[in-house]
Amino acid sequence: MNDRIIFEDVSKFYGEVLGVNRISLSIPPGITTLVGPNGSGKTTIMNLMTGLVQPSNGHISVLGLTPADQTELFSILGYCTQFDFFPRGLTGWQFVLDGLMLHGMEEDMAVALAGQAIERVQLGDAAGRKIAGYSKGMRQKIRLAQAIAHHPRVLVLDEPLNGLDPMARAESIALFEELGRQGMHVLISSHILDEVDRVSDRVILITGGYLIAEGNIHQVRQEVHEKPMQVLIRCDHPEVLASKMFAINHCVEARLHADGKGVFLRTADIDQFYSMLNGIAAEGLFKIDAVAPADDDANAIYQYLIGTDGSPS
Predict the structure, then answer these.
(1) Helix (H) and strand (E) counts for the chain?
(2) Is the pTM of this model over 0.70?
(3) What is the Cα–Cα distance from 123 to 140, expressed in whole angstroms?
(4) What are 21-45's pLDDT values in tens digits?
(5) In whole angstroms, what is the distance from residue 224 CA to residue 304 CA?
(6) Within a 10 A sphere around the Cβ of 22, how many other Cβ atoms?
(7) Are 239 and 256 spatial neighbours (Cβ–Cβ below 8 Å)?
(8) Which residues contact 58 (CB under 8 A, 6 or more apart)?
(9) Any idea what DSSP says for residue 294?
C-alpha cells in the first residue's frame, strides 16, 4: 500500500538498551499522534521512519519508499525534530531558503516556496531577523516552516507543542488540522495529552518501547477495556471512602494521593463505579470535591495504561 507508512515487526536496540520492540503499524493519511512518556520510544520510531537510524530487525516502508532511499524519501518527507539548533547569524528567511536549496531547487522556486511557508506559519516580518533573537515559539515556527516548505506528503513532528504559549499552540494545531484535511500524513509525538483527542485522527500509545494500543480514542478505550480504569477522587476522608468502595465490591485497588487529600481507585466496571459513588455522595457522609478523569478521556486512557499517578512526564 503506497499511501501508508508501514512498520513490520520493527525493533531497534542501542547496544543492550531497548529503543522499540516488535512494532507493527499501518498508518494512513491524516493526523496520527504518538503518545507516551519521555523515553517511551516515540523519537526512535520517528528516527527509524526518516532513516536517521536503522532498525535492528524488521522492515519499514514510507509511501512505498524505504528509509534507505534517502534522496527520494526526503523529497516527500519533512522532519521537525525537537532539537533546537541553528547555524549562528542566520535569519529565519535564510534558514528556510537554505533548506529548499538543499533539495536542489532553482532559486526562483525556492524563494517563492520559502515565502509561502513563512506566511503559512504566520511568522511575518520576523523572518528577516536573526534566529538568535527569536522566542521559543518563533523558533518552533521557523523549523516548521522549513519542514513544510517543499510541500512534503509526510510531515514528522517531534514534540511540536512543547513549550509553546497558548496562542502559538492554537496556531500550530490549526495548521496541523489543515494539513491533515489536505491528505498529508502528519505524525506528531507528544506527552501533552489535552489536545490529543481534538487534533488526532488516530492515537498510538507507546511505553517502554512497546506498542500498547492504537486507534481513535474510543477504539483505544475499547481495545483496553479489560484493564481496570483508574479514577482520582478528591474528598475530605479519602481512606474511609476507599474502605467503603471496597466493602461494596467496586474497587480492585486503592492508593492514597501523595498530598493525603485524595485517593486513586481502580475499577473494572466504570459505569457501576460512578453509580455507586453518586449514591455514597448523596448520603452526605463525605465532601467529594472532584472526580477525575472521565471515561473516554485521553488523559485517563494514557494514565491507566502506563500506571502513572496523574502527573504526565
Answers:
(1) 11, 13
(2) yes
(3) 10
(4) 999 999 999 999 998 777 889 999 9
(5) 10
(6) 14
(7) yes
(8) 7, 8, 9, 10, 11, 22, 23
(9) P
